[in-house]
Amino acid sequence: MSSFPDDVEGYYAELAERRGWSAETSAAIRATVELIRDLDRGTASRTYGAVVDDYGTDWLYEAVWHEREWVVVRQLGMGEDGEVRRYWWQRLEDDEGMLTDQSLDREEWGLRPLTREDFYTAWDDPGWSLSA
Predict the structure, then answer these.
(1) Which long-range CB contacts under 8 A does 54-62 form with residues at least 24 apart?
(2) Closest by Cα among 7, 36, 37, 12 to 26
(3) CA distances (Å), 127 to each of 50, 78, 81, 84, 86, in order?
(4) Among candidate residues 126, 107, 100, 94, the one with its CA nearest the CA of residue 36
(5) Would you state the pLDDT for residue 80?
(6) Mean pLDDT of 113-125
(7) How much is the pLDDT for 8?
(8) Residues 6+ apart with CB under 8 A from 100
(9) In principle, which of 100, 103, 127, 128 could form an S-S bond with 122, CB 3.0–4.6 Å?
(10) Cα separation of 110 and 49, whole Å?
(11) Minimum mean pLDDT among 13-22, 38-47, 63-72, 79-88: which range?
(12) Band (45; pLDDT cuts 50, 70, 90)
């Protein structure tokens, strides 16, 4: 298996220990991280979308076309309280949530179109808000 940067290796090792993951679960998580990383770095078609949930959190998604579905590779949540949550291959999950494991469905999720530029403006500067 390929290696990850030391901080990413450390994050997943600490998460595995804290959550009591078995060797099989750790291997499955690692395989998922590798897939999401490879998709994120790849050249496949991408789409972006945004929605505000019932709690006032702005959710932004970047998804890559893979095996006949849109696989979310980056997810950004910005709550009204200013809390920012970023999920991607370097941090698939934390104690607050996780990168969705559902294929992106614009209609079902009620997503509005979002440009790549707007997505990365928000990713790099969480002060940006859909509802502002």
Answers:
(1) 55/79, 55/80, 56/80, 56/131, 58/122, 58/129, 58/130, 58/131, 60/114, 60/119, 60/122, 60/123, 60/130, 61/100, 61/104, 61/111, 61/114, 62/116, 62/119
(2) 12
(3) 15, 9, 11, 9, 13
(4) 100
(5) 78
(6) 92
(7) 93
(8) 61, 72, 75
(9) 128
(10) 9
(11) 79-88
(12) very high
Mark 5-36 as b/e (b = at least 16 C-beta within 10 Å): eeeeeebbeebbeeeeeeeeebeebbeebeeb
In the chain, the amino acid numbered 116 is R
Tokens 């099989």 found at: 24
The mean pLDDT of the chain is 91
Q: Which two tokens stand for residue 69?
A: 């579905």
96 confidence band (pLDDT: 50, 70, 90): confident
Q: How far apart are CA 5 and CA 14, in angstroms?
A: 14
